[in-house]
Amino acid sequence: ISDPESRMMQNKKGFSELSYNTQISVSRNQIILSNDLCQDKHDAHQFIPQIRNAIENVKLKKNTKVALDCGYSDGKNIKFAEDNKIDLYVPSRSQAQELEGKEQTLNHDNYEYDAKKDELIVGKYRFYFKGVYARKSGKKIIMYYNDKLKKKKDVPFYFRERLRMKAKMEKPESKKVYGTRKITVEPVYGNIKENLGVRGFLLRGLKSAKIELNLACIAHNLQKIWRMAAAK
């Protein structure tokens, strides 16, 4: 409460507390390529600035695969990856539940699309294109409609990109790539929190907290580089 630039965010335990949102991008050998700190409680808007930072710092190889958790599953992110030839792997929240062996309580993107007729197929019913509108947040939504049911079906503006990613993530090789997150980025967070003891920021203000995060990331990278050199 002494830091007016922090924001209320929900932690992994389900509690809300004043926080900053930490973002890191790592290589296969757990070297941090880029990081950032923001006041956005949602990760969905952080992929594009993070991948741009990473590309600015290092040159990605042609066969580079980028795996994200379901918090980044947003049509805009997927479109950006397609437009920029980035081989992205990100499941929807419902797919993530399945991949993690949890009970499936969500049904994101649970429909098919007939591109020739521009119709959605939901179960045995078809919905035709009705129009586009914007919610109060400014987010664009596409509406499809079924006259017989007199019901509408709202889908994200980039729903076609989401459906392509959904089909991609159903493949065994895609699931394998996504699984590498457990041995790349997750251990980095663990090392910074547990071994380096950085479980919160001591400095106040977004700019100062970013400096603190940079120092923690530098310490992690130096540690990794030293261990890799020692192993040789």
Strand content: 15-25%
Percent of residues in helices comes to 25-40%
Number of DSSP strand runs:
11
Main beta sheet strand tally, sense and closure: 5 strands, antiparallel
Termini gap: 47 Å
Describe the global form.
globular
| Low-confidence spans | none
Structural class: alpha+beta
Number of helical elements: 7
* Average pLDDT, all residues: 94
**Rounded Rg:** 20 Å
Main sheet: which strands, in order across? 7-8-9-10-11
The H/E string reads EEEEHEHEHEEEEEHHHH
Question: What does it look like?
Answer:
With 232 residues, the chain is an alpha+beta fold. It is 35% helix and 25% strand. The strands form 4 sheets. It has a 5-stranded antiparallel sheet, with helices on one face. The longest helix has 26 residues. The radius of gyration is 20 Å and the shape is globular. The model has no long low-confidence stretch (mean pLDDT 94).
Topology:
Elements: E1 7-10, E2 16-19, E3 21-26, E4 32-38, H1 47-57, E5 65-67, H2 75-83, E6 87-89, H3 93-99, E7 112-114, E8 119-122, E9 125-134, E10 140-146, E11 151-156, H4 159-168, H5 172-179, H6 185-195, H7 206-231
Parallel strand pairs: 5-6
Antiparallel strand pairs: 1-2, 3-4, 7-8, 8-9, 9-10, 10-11
Helix pairs in contact: 2-4
Short description:
This protein has 232 residues and is α+β, with helices and mostly antiparallel strands.
